[in-house]
Design a protein that fits this description.
Oligomer: single chain
Bound molecules: pyridoxal-5'-phosphate
Strand order of the largest sheet: 4-10-9-8-7-5-6
Radius of gyration: 22 Å
Order of helices and strands: HEEEHHEHEHEHEHEHEEHHHHEEHHEEH
Largest sheet: 7 strands, mixed
CATH topology of the largest domain: Aspartate Aminotransferase, domain 2
Helix content: 25-40%
Strand content: 5-15%
Distance between the termini: 25 Å
Mean pLDDT: 97
CATH superfamily of the largest domain: Type I PLP-dependent aspartate aminotransferase-like (Major domain)
CATH architecture of the largest domain: 3-Layer(aba) Sandwich
Low-confidence stretches: none
CATH class of the largest domain: Alpha Beta
Length: 437
């Protein structure tokens, strides 16, 4: 890693002292810790002035890149008019209307502040609507940090389906008893589990593109059919895929319409806002009038729900995403990166797969493309992390071993520079003695 200034290290020391090791699960080793000062377009700059091409993009939200002028302008305008009201505003209404126009399953929208809240409430809505308790999720699927979500997301070994393995300490055992886990892309196992537990299942929740593992042909439509047969709600967690794989999200891209969907990240272009959307009849269980009528209410509220600054950022983001050619550009740039990296690996005889769909990808060191979490577990993760660290050392801001996000700000010049770094990073890991065995 290039040398860092005394000031950089002092910031890190102060941060550690009051914030612990990190803000999130994104933890770089001390040797590679980076403290960012600002971002513009596809680039971020650290406190020493060193520039990186950014493939973290705030963990996905920055689909237009950093500090896009339309978002800066919209947020500044709204900030001068007030930042929060705890009631309806034109910005929140217009954003909800736009989600309804864009997303096939959306008739009614509820705003929250994070993707975790969105999936938490989607599950609560499903339980209220169906009067059932259990939910089924997929091994390796991430739905945020609440107790029902952190089940078999990162198990160190293949699962004992359908028994979940909590990913965090501090989750009551009783919560685990309400979650079933199936294998991604395994329709037969999922069918068996759904048929065995049909009467107690409120929902099946999945990421329609699970992390970077695409759905097998017929898998999502199979889930749709099975859930419909048994009166179970199908929830697509589109926090990553929403407005990224297509304007209408994964449900548009894959042509399968769920009952409920959750959104976050790209929806509000880097400002804190997320949403649950779905059919009117289902979403109506969140209507506070139900309490007075003595009907079951799925309680959904939050101080900053539909925050006008974030809603203004969302409207500005979606206006850019609606312009012709935007998704073609996002796909084209990503495809160049993926194809270029595959060629570099092939020329060096390195078994490497670039998985994902749309403007996101993940580098996996394996002979074959993994189709589910257990196949991903067999890939060489250490090598993926070392590759990521080698990229960081050479000026790419990445989360080693994890997904890379691409934005509209990434240019063909960025692609060329990135491929040069990828080549040098592959050479660097090839030269490591441990890999010559
Ligand atoms: C698919 C998916 N769902 C939910 C979440 C949780 O979102 P948040 O971090 O905003 O709580 C994430 C976050 O990465 C995600 O990738």
């Amino acid at each position: 890693m290039p040398r860092r200034s005394v000031a950089h290290d002092e910031w890190l020391r102060r941060g550690r002292s009051v914030l612990g090791s990190s803000l999130t699960s994104f933890v770089l080793p001390d040797s590679h810790a980076i403290l960012l000062s600002h971002g513009l377009g596809s680039r971020v700059v650290d406190v020493d002035g060193r520039e990186y091409i950014d493939y973290v993009l705030g963990s996905g939200p920055l689909i237009l890149g950093h500090a896009h002028p339309a978002i800066v302008e919209a947020v500044s305008r709204q900030a001068a008019l007030g930042s929060t009201f705890y009631t309806l505003t034109p910005a929140a209404i217009e954003l909800a209307e736009e989600i309804v126009r864009a997303v096939p399953c959306a008739e009614v929208v509820k705003f929250v502040s994070s993707g975790s809240e969105a999936t938490f409430h989607a599950l609560r809505i499903a339980r209220t609507y169906t009067g059932r308790t259990k939910v089924l999720k997929f091994e390796g699927g991430f739905h945020g940090t609440h107790d029902y979500a952190l089940m078999s997301t990162f198990p160190p070994e293949p699962s004992d389906y359908p028994v979940p393995r909590p990913d965090s300490a501090g989750i009551p055992a009783q919560v685990a008893e309400t979650v079933l886990v199936s294998r991604w892309n395994d329709l037969e196992l999922t069918r068996t589990l759904i048929e065995q537990h049909a009467d107690e299942l409120a929902a099946v929740i999945c990421e329609p593109l699970q992390r970077a593992l695409p759905p097998a042909l017929g898998f999502l439509s199979g889930l749709r059919e099975l859930t419909q047969q048994h009166g179970i709600l199908l929830i697509f967690d589109e926090v990553v895929t929403g407005f990224r794989l297509a304007y209408g999200g994964a449900q548009e891209r894959y042509g399968v319409v769920p009952d409920l969907a959750t959104f976050g990240k790209a929806l509000s272009g880097g400002y804190p806002l997320a949403a649950v959307a779905g059919r009117r009849e289902i979403m109506s269980v969140t209507d506070f009038g139900r309490r007075a009528r003595g009907e079951p209410l799925a309680y959904l509220s939050g101080t900053l729900n539909g925050n006008p600054l974030a809603a203004a950022a969302g409207l500005a983001t979606l206006a850019v995403l609606r312009q012709p050619g935007v998704y073609e550009q996002l796909y084209r740039i990503t495809e160049r990166l993926k194809a270029g990296l595959r060629e570099l690996a092939a020329a060096r005889g390195i078994p490497l797969q670039v998985i994902g769909d749309g403007p996101l990808f993940q580098v996996v060191f394996a002979e074959e493309e993994p189709r589910d979490y257990s196949e991903l577990l067999r890939a060489d993760r250490d090598r993926a992390v070392r590759f990521g660290l080698a990229c960081l050392e050479r000026g790419l801001f990445v989360n080693p071993g994890e997904k890379c996000y691409v934005s509209l700000a990434h240019s063909d010049e960025d692609v060329e520079r990135t491929l040069e770094v990828f080549a040098a990073a592959l050479d660097a890991i090839l030269a490591e003695p441990s890999l010559l065995r």
